[in-house]
Amino acid sequence: MSYPRVALIGLGLIASSMFWAMRRAGMQGHVAGYARSAETRETARRIGLCDSICDSLEEVVKDADLVVLATPVGVMGRVAETIAPHLKPGATVTDVGSVKKAVIEAVGPHLPESVHFVPAHPMAGTEHSGPEAGFAQLFDNRWCLIVPESADEAAVARLEAFWRALGANTERMDVEHHDLVCAVVSHIPHLIAYTMVGVADDLRRVSDQEVIKFSAAGFRDFTRIAASDPTMWRDVFLTNKEATLEILGRFTEELFALQRAIRTGDGETLFDYFTHTREIRRGILQAGQDTDAPDFGRIKTET
Amino acid sequence: MSYPRVALIGLGLIASSMFWAMRRAGMQGHVAGYARSAETRETARRIGLCDSICDSLEEVVKDADLVVLATPVGVMGRVAETIAPHLKPGATVTDVGSVKKAVIEAVGPHLPESVHFVPAHPMAGTEHSGPEAGFAQLFDNRWCLIVPESADEAAVARLEAFWRALGANTERMDVEHHDLVCAVVSHIPHLIAYTMVGVADDLRRVSDQEVIKFSAAGFRDFTRIAASDPTMWRDVFLTNKEATLEILGRFTEELFALQRAIRTGDGETLFDYFTHTREIRRGILQAGQDTDAPDFGRIKTET
């Protein structure tokens, strides 16, 4: 079921968590890792990440049955171009990017006919990044969205089984729909959290110290979201431009409607809006996607 | 130091938590409670909330040394008008509202010269509301902002000692500054979380079921914030209109700048912005206002 040899390209939070989750699952295959930065490779070697750490892309993909692109989305095209001549025929190439259309357009054309390209997106993360941020439980009960396009059914099923062994649930999705759903549930929430934290910092009439000292629940959550990896998120917004701008337009419309209600003192509109959003939270609890407990499901470790 | 007789008006999350925190602190005084709804009074009696539950405002404030207005901000003026003739001379009247200028304007004119009015704002809450939502630890290590205006120093110091005994830290603040700081760290973050959840629900191309099923970290946090009490938040926005609209204006400016960077593909602006917001998170962690642990400080119970 699993892959005899796996290559992880880019050793950040996701790839390092994949390695520890593979170990936890008892997978026997060899895992080779590569990172562009010598410092990251050094750290990986020091903490025992992967069975071998390679110093070049050519080396890491050699004989690999599964090649995982886990770099920022913006460099995946260049990586694909470099590894293409060295891929083993019959290998599966996948990625872990948060956007799919741009990845498929950047990576797909470089890959030879002899490999299977099965894009994927594990929806899991923390505000920490780098090879030391990974942990085996990261994907437990999270979704890994698979965007199979025209890939071979056996290759898709094999990758799905791999992700389920790592703790994730899998679901197949059409590429356009994937990018829109993710803009709604992840990309735009991150953008507005970043914006709000930026506003707070920029206000001359409220000191940094006050913002930090009195940061209440709402804002504190935002700062956590806004501490996520800048490179990753820059690439998400640059590469999911269409869906991002669509949802951002809708968001601005709604925000202006609420702003107008505040300005005109229209309490009924505000009350109705806030009552309605409460229902959505209930739906999420009922669907088991979060818990009502004080830790909000973040320390769940069931496998 | 404490008050021999305390009256809690409005038996929601804050007042019920105050009662349990008073008990935990070993305060010996009598606590009388009142809620407008007969059902809430019944629930309070059933769960042992307060030493006595009164059926009228006149009754609950009789002989009280401390009267706490813990209703939605929008009705505090009417409550003050009703209780004014029945207040004991020398009593302290306080409130727990999230805005201060509007409360002072609504409540202040009704109170007799013989009582001390010391507005306060405990910055603590959860997404749950009602008399059964309270717990003794709610205020632990949270800030209670005191807006003393021209109140008697002894009365202010006594209320501060009371809040510290309930677990909170206290700080005095000017009324205008209070409303601006809270707009930044609490009110606007709530408004944009409400908005984002509303947008997600309203999209025709993404089903409710998908929004719920795939709700990732950022959005899940937003739904929790957006599940807060609709009446309370309606009143916050209606009564802190000036600061809310100011910060909302700044937020929109920043969001448009980031939107423009996305549209024009300006990755440098995005990267710099996201890198900068990361620093603010570090400041909050260093200030001890949150933890880096997976539960994000929410299950802290130190007293």
UniProtKB/TrEMBL annotation, chains A, B:
Pfam families: PDH_C (PF20463), PDH_N (PF02153). Keywords: Amino-acid biosynthesis, Aromatic amino acid biosynthesis, NAD, Oxidoreductase, Tyrosine biosynthesis. Coiled coil: none annotated. The keyword Ion transport does not apply. This is prephenate dehydrogenase. It catalyses: prephenate + NAD(+) = 3-(4-hydroxyphenyl)pyruvate + CO2 + NADH. Belongs to the prephenate/arogenate dehydrogenase family. GO terms for molecular function: NAD+ binding; prephenate dehydrogenase (NAD+) activity; prephenate dehydrogenase (NADP+) activity. Its EC number is 1.3.1.12. GO terms for biological process: tyrosine biosynthetic process. Residues 4-292 form the Prephenate/arogenate dehydrogenase domain. Gene3D superfamilies: 6-phosphogluconate dehydrogenase C-terminal like domain, NAD(P)-binding Rossmann-like Domain. It comes from the Bacteria. Pathway: Amino-acid biosynthesis; L-tyrosine biosynthesis; (4-hydroxyphenyl)pyruvate from prephenate (NAD(+) route): step 1/1. The keyword Amino-acid biosynthesis applies. It is an enzyme of class 1 (oxidoreductase).
